[in-house]
Amino acid sequence: MTKVALVTPYYPPKIGGVERYVAQLAQGLAGETDFTPVVITTRAKGLRTHRSVEDGIEVIRLGAWFRVSNTPLSPLWPLQVRRWLRRTEAQIVNAHAPVPGLGDIAILASGQRRVVFTYHAGTMHKGAEGSGLADRIIAAYERFVLPRVFDRCDVPVPVGPSSLAAGKPGAVLITPGVDLARFTPGETASRGRELVYVGRMDRTSSWKGVDVLINALSLLGDIPGLRLKLVGEGDALPDHLALAQRLGVRDRVDAAGALAGDELVRAMQTAAVLVLPSTTDAECAGTVLMEAMACSTPVVASDVGSLAYVVNDGEAGIIVPPADPVRLAAACRELLTDPERAAKLGAAGRARAEAMFAWPHLVGRYAAVFAGLTLERSTSTKRSTSAR
């Protein structure tokens, strides 16, 4: 068995697309493959390293000394990562980003190990009011640091065509996936008139476009019984609820908190429409879209990142221009008032999820990448030995 270190800035129980991606990959590799995963990530609180087994996966959580925006950092990580790669006997490093820091350090500390770099976003420019300094730092990182990180890796993996890893030499596209046994279609009769958003609501993630969605809701006041369910947490939630209050729709907005397991599936199954209103290419593949599609729920998403690739406009849902509440409201209205079209898009979404986003297939692609690197290393070692 070959040990693979999956290095990610965050990991469940924290909720997010990258977190779910790495967790599903770890579980898949721990199944019927020749690779044993070990996860190296960060702690939510505390400075000491914590080592545990979670759902059968070895997880090493490093302490973070401080955070810049949404990025955990520590000056000890170069030494700690190098030590844990050695102690776990990892032969392959699979780093995940776009959050700069831990993934970059793991790649630079990988030594002679083979490196796979999975990049989960296009440019991380926020483009929001007050983000000028952050955008300048991100621009410098993407221009000067990131290319050198890519140069150091053996295989870049974009999670969508808009990822900054796309087009790099040797790149292998591996999108997020969905657990088709968990996310299944519900009863058609159970669908109400509820728009559902699933994702984080941090002030540093204003590009998620929740404010755009609330503005769109205010344009749909003539639809009886229409509600918006916000699934997730973050320090921007009070801001969103205050906006809903100013627009006169606070009584139609439900803050459900962070849902997981059966509760999350149920929210997807009963939604009339799942909406992902992101405004920048920081949103790459949109895992929640795939999960909703697997539940036969029609989706509406912005034309940013790789969301159009996931949905295929008009097949599983509707793609609208970003930051346009009028067009967003019109797309939602179309699906809310035409149940036959909504059901058709939902059924097509399930078929698309089965054909393109099933996790066993995607884990198999990773296993093939890892196997190729293992074979290359073995061949190189034999040649080196023969030369002596």
Brief synopsis:
Helix content is 40%, strand content 19%. It has helices at residues 17-29, 77-87, 102-108, 132-152, 210-218, 237-246, 261-270, 287-294, 307-311, 325-337, 339-356, 359-387; strands at residues 2-7, 35-42, 50-54, 57-62, 66-68, 71-73, 92-97, 114-119, 155-158, 194-198, 227-231, 253-257, 273-276, 299-302, 317-320. It starts with a strand and ends with a helix.
Protein model, in words:
- The protein is an alpha/beta fold and 388 residues long.
- The protein folds into 2 domains: 2-177 and 358-387, Glycogen Phosphorylase B (Rossmann fold); 188-356, Glycogen Phosphorylase B (Rossmann fold).
- It is built from 12 helices and 15 strands.
- It has helices at 17-29, 77-87, 102-108, 132-152, 210-218, 237-246, 261-270, 287-294, 307-311, 325-337, 339-356, 359-387; strands at residues 2-7, 35-42, 50-54, 57-62, 66-68, 71-73, 92-97, 114-119, 155-158, 194-198, 227-231, 253-257, 273-276, 299-302, 317-320.
- It has a 7-stranded mixed β-sheet with strand order 3-4-2-1-7-8-9, sandwiched between helices. The protein has a 6-stranded parallel β-sheet with strand order 12-11-10-13-14-15, with helices on both faces. Strands 5-6 form a two-stranded antiparallel sheet.
- The model is unreliable at 381-388 (pLDDT under 50).
